[in-house]
Amino acid sequence: MNKIGFNVLAWTAAVSDDVFPIIDRLKGIGYDGVEFYLGSPDAAAYRRMGNYTQELGLETTAVITVGKEDNPVSESAEIRAKAVDKIKWAVDRAHDLNAKIICGPFHSAHTIFVNRPATDSEYALAGEVLHVAGEYAAQAGVVFALEALNRFECYLCNTTVQLKKLVEAAGHPNVRAMFDTHHANIEEKNYLSAIETISPYLAHVHISENDRGTPGDGQVLWDDAFSALAKVNYRGWLTIEAFSRNDPDFANAIGVWREFSDPWDIAEKGYRFIREMSEKHGLVKS
Fold this sequence. Notes:
alpha/beta, globular, Xyl_isomerase-like_TIM-brl, isomerase activity, eight-stranded parallel β-barrel, TIM Barrel, single chain, isomerase, Xyl_isomerase-like_sf
């Protein structure tokens, strides 16, 4: 049975006690888990959140990004070493949260471009960083689920073909992949071929509308996406990732300049939509 999660980035990038009321309401809607961005520096806050969600009976997953100063594909060995340290720090915070999955595009710096296509050497560099970090993650029982992003946010991995190449370059069982319907809506020819390509490594899925609003209200070909996930017998998380202007610093960093949908509209309608689509296509047992 697939579990349904919600990423609290719809409200905030922070991990703090202020998020507890949001967690309570998500639990009431029926979610199995919540996803957090690993950016807040206070380690104790992650431990408190991990304890709080565990007491509520909710599971957790996590997401991270890296930047110019800790870029795994940098030519600088010093910067790549910082990338390893950043990802190891994320593993420690995920452990504090009781999270077993860290997803996201942390194979390369977000929105940092070099005005050329990715090279084989960059896949090798990222693979080396991720392999080393994967060894550390394995000790904590954490799996990396790397993400392909659209061309406006990343140049290393835009498609699942490229993502598969990266995962295989890392060559570690704890370094796997995720699928995001928003990015795929921009970059892939169709959902079936994309999901079949990455299915041997697929460990996480983000359910995200083309405009980052309420799933089912936009242009994503949801029947195609869910039927493809059913065809490859995917049994992992189906986690809604949607954004808003509620956290201005985070919104500015990812280019969110308007409100897409009210976060609670996304959470309530999105949960029902995932249940309906999953049952329709045989992903969730009734």
